[in-house]
Design goal:
The structure holds 2 protein chains of 2 kinds. Chain A is an alpha+beta fold. Chain A is built from 7 helices and 11 strands. The chains are: A alpha+beta, B mainly alpha.
Chain lengths: 249, 386
């Protein structure tokens, strides 16, 4: 058998690597992987903080949410709006959100105008109009403060969509039940953050646990001027915006 | 930019959620409530002049009430789950509670009142008719064959009590439909405490107009002379209730204009553009001012029977068109503008789709077909039944 020196050395290297790997694997105990402490909903109260000044409108959050949650094309669990406000004309901002900003925004052509980005998602309100109106309780608030939808129960009557002041809900075109941001409940109950927060390159969006005294949300709420969307709706929104402009709807 | 969108809509708002079927639903329940209230005029308030329409009004109410849930069922994403509203209702939901109001009205009020009123006729017909129809009457007697004067007196007393309960129930039925819209605080076009009251009065207007027209049509089919005293009385009631309804709607309008809150500019623009034809032209001008003028004219001028009949018929048809436009403007209009108040979308009415124009037309013809069957089974005059 003709074996070149190069092939022999490569074969020897593979043998050594695989041999060590096999030995290392043999050292791993055959017990179950380390368990996270069981999730206790009564110990959490979830919300989100958004720093308007940090949002650069890249759309990473929209793409991450779409990929994580299988959001159908043309519908949005989260989206980003770009505001242009002429000096002294708070009442008539120019707002755009092309495809929910899933591909970010084209360069702005407006100059000499106040401009900023506003990420939007379900506000996970404490007194949610959507929860109030659902005829069968398919939309409900979890014990840890997340507004969720039981898709096996939803009638698809769309009353909740009418009742949401923020435009956060839609009918899933294939399931024919309502769909919305779940605050990545499947992730946050495993000790992870939401897909949108994880993908945000500037840390503009942060998951907040209002029941955890060590959560940075408390410093955020204490040290900043904070506002919620449409406060006159009195929904007790848990999505808190830092430096939210008065023109934002 | 989506076609049909002007300005900025939240991305999930572009698509309208409630279609023409949800326009039909308050329209149909309105006809039910209005027809019943007209029937109760004779029964409770002893307005003898409208007696010829008593049974017709009750059967009209029943025919439309049987169809009322169908547009809702057709609209639901999962109609097979709709019964959950009765099994596990969310008590804070206006829509869930409406299911019980509907059942109460259908089972306790309307069916009971019709059965009590027709009981003697049904028993008689179960003995005189032949063939399969006899069995229908036998079933409808519910096993009670007693039509002695004493039993009839009990029927009459119970019927009177049912009607007494029925009037607030009819008010509740349609006031509640108004509340389903009026309590949505997120929607400035809907959110007003006047909504249940406006819905109620417009329901009475449409129901009275419908029974007035049906009375003329049925009389023609049955080759009977129209009782002009009855028609004049109905038209008079229609005129006064319509005046109250129109005043309430104008009150709402004036209030909005004077207050001019954050939604006003958006809603004003919508009424002057996308809703101009359906609201200003069809609802207010053709569907309200013209019929009010026609009905008003008959109140102050002496006119021949033929002219009055023609005017009543025209006013009735225009009224029904106007009230339909009102429902359209509430339901569709409330979804044409963005909750950001920065943009507008368009409603594209399709034809032969699940929520298109074709099923809507079928659903409007269906109660008339049911009424035709009911009229065959349950004759309007006791003489005919005998």
């Amino acid at each position: 058998m003709d074996v070149s020196r190069r092939e022999m050395l490569a074969g020897a290297a593979k043998f050594l690597v695989l041999g060590f790997a096999a030995e290392a694997a043999a050292d791993v105990p055959l017990a179950a992987p380390a368990q996270l402490p069981a999730y206790d909903p009564s110990q959490h109260w979830w919300g989100m903080t958004i720093d308007i000044d940090l949002c650069i409108g890249c759309g990473n959050c929209v793409r991450a949410c779409s990929a994580e949650n299988g959001v159908p094309d043309g519908y949005f669990r989260t989206w980003v709006e770009r505001y242009h406000v002429k000096s002294g004309d708070q009442e008539h901002p120019k707002v755009e959100s092309p495809d929910g900003a899933i591909k970010g925004f084209p360069p702005s052509t407006e100059t000499n105008e106040k401009a900023f980005y506003v990420p939007k998602l379900c506000n996970h309100c404490e007194t949610s109009p959507c929860v109030q109106v659902c005829p069968v309780g398919a939309t409900f608030e979890s014990p840890d403060g997340v507004v969720l939808v039981d898709t096996t129960y939803c009638l698809g009557c769309r009353y909740c969509i009418q009742a949401c002041p923020y435009g956060c809900r839609y009918i899933h075109p294939e399931r024919h039940t309502v769909d919305k941001c779940s605050l990545c409940y499947h992730r946050i109950t495993q000790g992870l953050t939401t897909a949108c927060c994880e993908a945000c390159p500037t840390g503009a969006r942060k998951l907040a646990d209002l029941k955890n005294p060590k959560d940075p949300v408390h410093a955020f709420l204490r040290d900043n001027k904070v506002q919620v969307l449409k406060p006159h709706m009195a929904t007790r929104s848990k999505t808190f915006y830092k430096d939210l402009d008065g023109s934002v709807r | 930019m989506h076609p049909g969108v002007e300005g900025f809509m939240y991305p999930n708002e572009v698509e309208l959620q409630w279609s023409i079927l949800i326009v039909l639903y308050p329209y149909i329940t309105g006809l039910v409530a209005g027809a019943f209230i007209l029937a109760s005029l004779e029964r409770v308030f002893k307005v003898a002049a409208v007696k010829p329409t008593y049974r017709l009004a009750l059967l009209t109410a029943l025919a439309f009430l049987l169809v009322a849930p169908l547009p809702l069922q057709l609209h639901l994403g999962h109609p097979e789950r709709s019964f959950e509203m009765y099994l596990t209702p969310n008590r804070s939901s206006a829509m869930a509670m409406f299911g019980f109001v509907y059942l109460w009205y259908l089972m306790v009020v309307l069916l009971l009142e019709i059965w009590l009123d027709y009981r003697a006729d049904i028993v008689r017909m179960s003995q005189t008719t032949r063939g399969p129809v006899r069995w229908i009457y036998k079933v409808l007697t519910l096993g009670s064959q007693d039509i002695s004067p004493e039993a009839r007196k009990i029927d009459d007393t119970v019927g009177w009590i049912v009607t007494i309960i029925g009037i607030p129930s009819a008010f509740l039925l349609h006031g509640y439909v108004g509340f389903i819209f009026g309590s949505v605080k997120a929607n400035a076009w809907w959110s007003t405490p006047l909504m249940p009251v406006v819905f109620l009065f417009s329901a009475m207007v449409s129901g009275i107009a419908a029974v007035m027209l049906l009375y003329m049509v049925v009389s023609r089919f049955q080759k009977q002379v129209v009782d002009m005293r009855c028609l004049d009385t109905i038209a008079k009631y229609l005129f006064y209730v319509f005046l109250i309804d129109f005043s309430l709607e104008m009150l709402d309008l004036i209030h909005r204009i004077y207050e001019a809150d954050e939604s006003f500019r958006t809603l004003d623009f919508m009424v002057q553009t996308r809703l101009y034809m359906s609201q200003v032209v069809i609802q207010i001008c053709i569907g309200t001012v013209v019929p009010l003028a026609l009905l008003g004219w008959t109140q102050v001028r002496r006119l021949s029977d033929g002219v009055r009949r023609a005017m009543y018929a025209t006013a009735g048809v225009l009224t029904l068109i106007g009230i339909f436009a009102m429902r359209w403007n509430v339901v569709i209009g409330g979804q044409l503008f963005s909750k950001s108040y920065l943009g507008y979308t368009t409603y594209k009415l399709e034809f032969a789709t699940r929520e298109g124009l074709l099923p809507a037309i079928v659903l409007m013809i269906l109660p008339l077909a049911i009424l035709w069957v009911l009229l065959k089974l349950l004759p309007l005059s006791e003489k005919e039944a005998a």
